[in-house]
Amino acid sequence: MPDLIHDGDSAAAVSSLRSAVMLLGRRLKHQRVDESLSPTEMSVLATLARCGSATPGELARKEHVQPPSMTRIVALLEAKGLVRLEPHPDDRRQKMVSQTEQAEAMLAESRTKRNAWLAHLAEGLDEDEWETLRAAAPVLEKLAHL
C-alpha cells in the first residue's frame, strides 16, 4: 500500500475523495422529504432504523452528541410522532427509543428521493465513468464502516 499521506498522487487522490464525499454528503442531506426535521433528527431516525431500538445514551454515543442534546432530540421526535419511548427490559430507570411506522414510511420516502436525486446526477456520467463508480461503491461502503 502506498503512503497515502506523503505520496503526491495518493495524497491528491485522498484529498479529492474527501472533498467529493463531503460535498455529496452535504447535498444529499438537503434532499429531505420533511423539511421540518433537522439533519441530526433524520440521522437519529436512520440510526434507529439500523439498530432497532436504543437508549438515549446509546443514541448519543452513536450520533456523537452529548446525552442532554439527545434527550431534547428524542423529545422533539416523540412530539412529532416519529419515535416512541418504552420501558427498558432490564433497567427500570431507563427508556428504550424506537421509531414509529410513520418514521419508517418517511425514511423510506426519503431514501427513494435521495436515490432518485443521485441517479439523476449519475445520468450525466458516460458509460466508463458509471462502471468505475459502480465498481467503487463497495469500496466506499467498506470505508464508511471502518
Key words describing this protein structure:
146 residues, mainly alpha, Arc Repressor Mutant, subunit A, 2 domains, 3-stranded antiparallel β-sheet, globular
Which secondary structure elements does this structure contain, and how are they paired or packed?
Layout: H1 8-29, H2 39-51, E1 53-54, H3 56-63, H4 67-79, E2 83-87, E3 95-99, H5 101-122, H6 127-144
Antiparallel strand pairs: 1-3, 2-3
Helix pairs in contact: 3-4
Please give a structural write-up.
The protein is globular and about 55 Å long. It is 66% helix and 8% strand. It starts with 7 loop residues before the first helix and ends with a helix. With 146 residues, the chain is mainly alpha-helical. Strand 2 and strand 3 form a beta hairpin. Helix 3 (56-63) packs across helix 4. It has a three-stranded antiparallel sheet with strand order 1-3-2. It is built from six helices and three strands; from the N terminus they run H-H-E-H-H-E-E-H-H. The chain folds into two domains: 1-30, no CATH class; 31-144, Winged helix-like DNA-binding domain superfamily/Winged helix DNA-binding domain (Arc Repressor Mutant, subunit A, Orthogonal Bundle).
